[in-house]
Specification:
Order of helices and strands: HHHHHHHHHHHHHHH
Distance between the termini: 50 Å
Oligomer: single chain
Mean pLDDT: 85
Strand content: under 5%
Radius of gyration: 22 Å
Largest sheet: none
């Protein structure tokens, strides 16, 4: 903690924040990994399966909005504990009911808790550490560690009970978050409502971002990127299992493999971003992301599938942060501009899992009507649904080409 420059009174708080982001990382991959279990346990359709993960993203978007005003009303500590409790309630609800409405509410609550964690942890680490770069790197490493471990915890607990192992895992994570809430209650996190604090500056500066074509271009790139990321995280395990490409255990491990490559990709992007043109870097990553994803879903040859999976994780890792970093500084420093950008981009994360589910369900039903067996229909349906992600990635690639061409044009004008 000395290297991070943390005051003694804040050490326990920072430890709690790191542990909370670790548990949030577990939730991030666990929800996608258990979707096949939910489908089997509750006999739910592909449409509901996709909608569940979409409602998780809706909760995530709601948390972005709530995080803007709740601390001002009741203070950071109370609002964080309340929102983290949404995760406990949501995870528990998922294990006890297959009612479609209750499932969607449960997934929304998990999204609200996860979104709160993403907002508050970054803020607290930035506030309590002098070496913010190191502090934030450690924070996101804890998230990745949780994301890597949860599929293995799921597999381990499922070895004791194939039918209820996923429930044991959800309860385990819920208990971890309950411990987080207890630790937050004992921490030094501020209890004073933000609205009663003396503001550091008077007013919020609003910039005319809505007039900028490049701002909306970057927002569109992020929207289609999140289409791919959200649908990948939510559907890949189900895709590998229902097509018979992998057994459920190996399919669940793919989430961890994906996160290993995401971490490697982020480290690579961090090391080269200052040395290369960032618009070119985004273009290369988008092209690789589209190529590897299409490779992954276009074959049943396992070595090629694994190469495609690893390449997809590696290439998708740096698109979001690198695209954000190409925004004009006045946009990134404007709460209104950056909030509008992220809010619109999250609509991609919300809609794409639903679209995949709707396509899968309709194709499956049509195949059954045409005389296919249930297994054959499921195979065809989920393959058709997952293929829609390639369309979103192709649109993202086209937008990055436009971005790169505009950047080259701007550089040419500056040189002249």
């Amino acid at each position: 903690m000395e290297k991070l420059g943390v005051e003694q009174k804040n050490i326990r708080l920072l430890d709690t924040i790191y542990f909370s982001f670790f548990t949030t990382g577990m939730v991030s991959t666990l929800l996608g990994a258990i979707l096949p279990n939910l489908k089997s346990a509750y006999n739910i359709s592909y449409i509901l399966t996709g909608s569940a993960y979409s409602f998780h993203q809706i909760g995530n978007l709601a948390a972005v909005v709530i995080a803007g005003f709740l601390p001002y009303a009741i203070g950071r500590k109370k609002s964080t504990i309340i929102m983290f409790s949404c995760l406990i309630i949501g995870l528990t609800m998922i294990t006890v009911t297959g009612n479609p409405v209750m499932l969607l509410i449960a997934f929304t609550l998990t999204g609200m808790g996860r979104g709160t964690a993403s907002n508050i942890t970054n803020v607290v680490v930035a506030d309590t550490t002098k070496n913010k770069t190191a502090g934030l790197n450690i924070l996101h490493a804890t998230f990745a560690l949780g994301a890597l471990l949860s599929p293995f915890i799921l597999i381990f607990l499922s070895s004791f009970s194939k039918s209820s192992g996923w429930r044991f895992t959800m309860w385990f994570v819920a208990v971890c978050i309950l411990i987080v809430d207890f630790m937050l209650g004992l921490s030094s996190m501020s209890t004073i409502p933000e609205g009663k604090k003396k503001p550091a500056v008077s007013g919020i500066r609003t910039v005319p971002f809505y007039r900028s074509f490049t701002y909306w271009l970057n927002t569109a790139i992020l929207t289609f990127y999140l289409c791919g990321e959200s649908a990948n995280m939510g559907w890949l395990v189900t895709y590998f299992k229902d097509t018979g490409l992998m057994g459920q255990t190996f399919a669940q491990i793919t989430s961890s493999l994906m996160w290993i490559m995401i971490m490697g990709g982020r480290l690579m992007c961090a090391s080269v971003s200052a040395k290369v043109n960032r618009s070119r870097l985004v273009l290369v990553l988008a092209a690789l992301n589209t190529f590897f994803f299409v490779m992954m879903i276009s074959t049943r040859y396992m070595p090629v599938i694994i190469i495609g999976l690893l390449g997809t994780g590696f290439s998708m890792s740096g698109i979001y942060p690198t695209t954000l970093s190409t925004m004009k500084p006045e946009y990134n420093s404007s709460p209104v501009a950056i909030g509008t950008c992220i809010g619109i981009a999250l609509t991609g994360a919300i809609s794409m899992p639903m679209i995949v589910g709707a396509i899968a369900q309709n194709v499956t039903a049509a195949a059954v009507r045409n005389g296919s067996s249930i297994a054959e229909a499921d195979n065809l349906g989920v393959t058709s649904g997952i293929s829609a992600i390639a369309v979103a990635l192709a649109v993202m690639l086209i937008l990055t080409v436009i971005k790169y061409m505009l950047n080259r044009k701007e550089q040419g004008l500056q040189n002249n």
